[in-house]
Specification:
By secondary structure, this protein is mainly alpha-helical. The protein has three domains: 103 residues, no CATH class; 99 residues, DNA polymerase, domain 1; 127 residues, hpI Integrase, Chain A, CATH 1.10.443.10. The longest helix has 20 residues. It is flat.
Length: 415
């Protein structure tokens, strides 16, 4: 594509002002990310307009940052020329210029961002979670909104004095969150405890307020796993259109969930080097930075090979599964995998009570149990750390449970 755009790129360089020397580099980056020719032309033209706008204001390339980009977008809005895609294009442009050392790294803007004290606290807390606690990015992403709501609700845009947080403030916040987001309270409570304990360790609060977070009632084994029946799983797989690249990708993902019981996040994290084709093994990067090796069934391996050969876009990304449309990159989170499952269920006409990726993991465990596998074997396949985690599947083994049920008492004299 880059050769086809050479004349267009040369024409845009002439009018690009401040960015004249970098238009070709930007065009090459767009080509590598897989953008269509028409889309790349629009993005290159916008970059040239941005460079010309910067040149009229005497701004050199090394002074570029997100604030300059926002000013340019505001200028386009006033002239009625702004589009939703423009912000993404400028974000890519800044990323490319940072990669070649023209624009300052993001870290140099932390002082400006820290002018907002709540943002400063969030960023410091995230570093603590990642570097000292070793938590996964997904866990950090779940904790930060809780902290933001606590601080924003308590200080309401005023000065942030962390020492002013009192036990009654914590209790009031948890009560409000439980009323507004009852399903999220199991995340909210541990997030608050970690944050409040961290504040005390830093000396921001005189007492450890983590003990003020009310306990959330949770009864072990209180629920039955929400699982897809084996015939529903087969119906789901049959309705993947493997004649298209997206269908081949989705089929391979659904097989990994249904045949190996992978978690959605584990599918997202898979890389090209995680399969040993010669030995027929798959490396799974699971919770807590744990790596396991699983045998690769023939059907799953064939589906992965079909996607790699005739479905995966040509790109430099090492993630095994990438977006079907440019920019070609790995999935942002496990939500994308859950969306693939949900779309597949809709195509199949299935309406289970739960539509996430975990229903396939539960379905594998329940099918193994009905086929005579022991709980220990199921725990080994699902890579549970504790046998207690696997114990919940005993509740779906109705045949074994009937043997434990006492006979129903009958009145005396009945046959």
């Amino acid at each position: 594509m880059l050769k086809e755009l050479s004349e267009f790129v040369a024409a845009q360089r002439v009018r690009a002002g401040t960015l004249e020397d970098h238009i070709a580099t930007f065009a090459a980056a767009l080509s590598e990310r897989g953008y269509a020719k028409s889309t790349a032309k629009q993005q290159i033209r916008l970059a040239a307009d941005f460079g010309r706008w910067l040149g009229r204001r005497g701004v050199v390339a090394t002074e570029l940052d997100e604030e300059r980009a926002s000013e340019f977008l505001a200028y386009l809005r006033r002239r009625g020329r702004a589009r939703r895609s423009h912000r993404t294009t400028l974000r890519i442009l800044l990323s490319v210029l940072r990669d070649i050392g023209i624009v300052r790294p993001v870290s140099t803007f932390e002082a400006e961002l820290d002018a907002n004290p709540v943002v400063a606290i969030e960023r410091t807390f995230v570093r603590y979670l990642a570097e000292e606690r070793g938590l996964q990015p997904s866990t950090c992403a779940n904790y930060i909104p809780v902290v933001r709501r606590l601080l924003s609700g308590h200080f309401r845009g005023g000065s942030v004095a962390l020492g002013s947080i009192r036990p009654e403030d914590v209790t009031r916040f948890v009560t409000s969150e439980a009323r507004n987001s009852p399903r999220q309270i199991k995340v909210i409570a541990p997030a608050l405890r970690v944050f409040l304990r961290w504040l005390h360790q830093r000396g921001n609060t005189q007492t450890n307020l983590a003990g003020c977070v009310p306990a959330v009632a949770e009864w072990r084994l209180a629920t039955v796993p929400k699982a897809l029946a084996s015939e529903q799983v087969e119906c789901l797989l049959r309705h993947c259109n493997r004649a298209t690249p997206v269908g081949r990708r989705d089929y391979a993902i659904l097989l990994l969930l249904a045949r190996l019981g992978l978690r959605a996040g584990e599918v997202v994290a898979m890389e090209l080097d995680d399969i040993d084709w010669e030995s027929g093994e798959l490396i799974v990067r699971g919770k807590g930075h744990r790596e396991d090796r699983l045998p690769l069934p023939h059907t799953v391996g064939a589906a992965l090979a079909a996607y790699l050969r005739n479905g995966r876009p040509h790109c430099s990304i090492r993630r095994r599964f990438v977006r079907a449309r440019a920019p070609y990159q790995g999935f942002a989170s496990s939500v994308a995998i859950c969306n693939i499952v949900e779309r597949g269920l809709k195509r199949s006409g299935l309406e289970p009570s739960r539509k996430g990726a975990h229903t396939l993991r539960h379905g594998l465990a329940c099918t193994m149990l009905r086929c005579g596998a022991s709980l220990a074997e199921i725990g080994q396949i699902l890579r549970h750390r504790s046998p207690d985690t696997t114990a919940i599947y005993a509740k779906v083994d109705l045949t074994a449970l009937r043997a434990l049920a006492p006979a129903w008492p009958q009145p005396a004299g009945d046959a």
